[in-house]
Amino acid sequence: RNQAGVMPRQGAEQLMTPNRQDEVVLQINKLQQQRERRRELYNRERLLREQQMNEDPGNPNWEIARMIRLHRQEMSNAQKKTKTAAKEPPKEHQIIVCVRKRPLNQKELADKKELDVVSIHSRDHLVVHEPRKHVNLVKFLENHSFRFDYAFNENCSNAFVYEFTARPLIRHIFDGGMATCFAYGQTGSGKTHTMGGKFTGRNQQNSLDGIYAMATRDVFSLVESPAYVSLNLRVFCSFFEIYGSRVYDLLVTGKPQLKVLEDGHQQVQVVGLTENAVKNVEDVLNLLDLGNSVRTSGQTSANSKSSRSHAVFQIVLRKSSSITERPHGKFSLIDLAGNERGADNNSVDRLTRLEGSDINKSLLVLKECIRALGRQSAHLPFRGSKLTQVLRDSFIGGKKVKTCMIAMISPGLHSVEHTLNTLRYADRVKELTVDSLIPR
Ligand code: ADP
Ligand code: MG
Q: Where does the Kinesin motor domain lie (predicted)?
């Protein structure tokens, strides 16, 4: 024994014969194996118990729910084996297309027939589980896989979404470019939540938490930054609504209708559109409040009419306050009309049907314009709709133009058809771009 009274290690080993040593190692290995087996069994049993517990016999969708659960389990096991990539900086492409899934809401969670059918597996990959039936009536899942620049899951905040979508475009307008950011998707999927901020009441939102305000906040900080302060830029904001082929100013109480004119040089002008000078975020919040109240005034429900119009919020950078001069840069942020009406041809109301086909057309033309931009094609079909006509200067100019589309989706089983339509549309927007031809 040494001074501390501890048997020296070497001494202990000497007490054991080589045979005894092997036996101890064997025993330890055996114990470890047993422990691992027990753990695996326990995990399996727990999973089974969980599945059985959730398999509510009264729920007509329990089989589907179970198939989705197994799919997720498998994917998460597979992912654990592959290393997760390090955090990348935001992408800097000319066209960014991403998807955002909102969480199931209280009503959906309480509905036994509702089910989350969207799995986001990684930062750019998602799967939509569509329940189908074989001819022999056996249920199965058709899993539709999609890849976008980013896929934001239900836990992502507005600030996080902003970071990877609109924020990378702010510098671009300071460098003399034009930028657009579109929120696309069915009514109720989260377009207004994302652009305007979290809802705190029926028509009330926390604007600070929306992309409109976050973008202007960053614009103000860049105006003062050493890189751009010498440009002496002033910031202006407009907010208007496009309803069918009519344009309404949202910054004037009473929502006056505005004329859209195209001059001989193919410059499009929204005549009389209010452009308010803003000095700080507070000014912008006041404008947003005014615009939102003008937009929804007289409506019985938050979604009744606003879901049938496109809302356009613009941040304009100018070197002087003359609004006839071409701006230094412009950022248009658009809360698009709900895309669900394209399929809705059996509405009894003729006006609703006409509105539906009008919205449908404007969204199709928008898609073609972005695709043309991606192909760097000289022909832009912007005259096909009021929306693209008004945004014309944000589509021409080659590399001076950048755009971002956020496709919003509802996670529920009841929305699966609309969700697939939304994702297919977004897929088409991206598919022909120069970016997408570069192998990942
Ligand atoms: P849209 O403008 O596409 O019709 P909304 O933005 O009005 O949809 O959202 C519909 C409802 O869902 C609102 O009550 C909103 O608060 C809620 N919602 C949308 N997106 C989210 C989200 N990411 N997190 C929490 N709630 C959301
Ligand atoms: Mg909305």
A: 94-432
Contact partners, residue 375, CB within 8 Å, separation at least 6: 432, 433, 434
Structure confidence at residue 307 (pLDDT): 85
Average pLDDT for the chain: 87
pLDDT of 232 > 70? The answer is yes
Pocket test for ligand 1, best of 101, 153, 193, 200 (most atoms within 8 A of CB): 193
Mean pLDDT to the nearest integer, 374-399: 88
Distance 199 CA to ligand 1 centre (A): 8
| pLDDT exceeds 90 at position 137 | no
Cα→Cα distances 97→37, 93, 164, 166, 235, Å: 46, 10, 10, 11, 27
Residue 108, SS3?
helix
Nearest-CA neighbor of 219 among 185, 179, 247? 179
- In terms of phi and psi (left: phi > 0; alpha: psi -120 to 50; beta: otherwise), the region of 18 is alpha
- Are the beta carbons of 268 and 209 closer than 8 angstroms? no
Does any ligand 1 atom lie closer than 6 A to the CB of residue 156?
no
Question: Would you call 287 helix, strand, or coil by DSSP?
Answer: helix
pLDDT of residue 302: 46
Which single residue is written with the structure tokens 């089974």? 48
User: In this predicted model, what pLDDT tens digit does every residue of 194-223 receive, in sequence order?
Assistant: 999 999 987 789 999 999 999 999 999 999
Mean pLDDT computed over 331-350: 78
For ligand 1, whether the C-beta of 220 sits within 6 Å is: no
Query: Reduced to 3 states, what is the DSSP secondary structure of residue 304?
Result: coil
**CB neighbour class for 280 (10 Å; exposed up to 12, middle 13-18, buried from 19):** exposed
Tokens 């004037």 sit on residue: 252
Helix (H) or strand (E) holding 272, with range, is: none
430 is in an annotated binding site: no
**62: Cβ below 6 Å to ligand 1?**
no
Contact status, residue 358 vs residue 370, Cβ threshold 8 Å: no
Q: How far is the CA of 198 from the centre of ligand 2 (A)?
A: 12
Q: Is the ipTM of this complex over 0.85?
A: yes
Chain segment 19-28, per-residue pLDDT in tens: 888 899 999 9
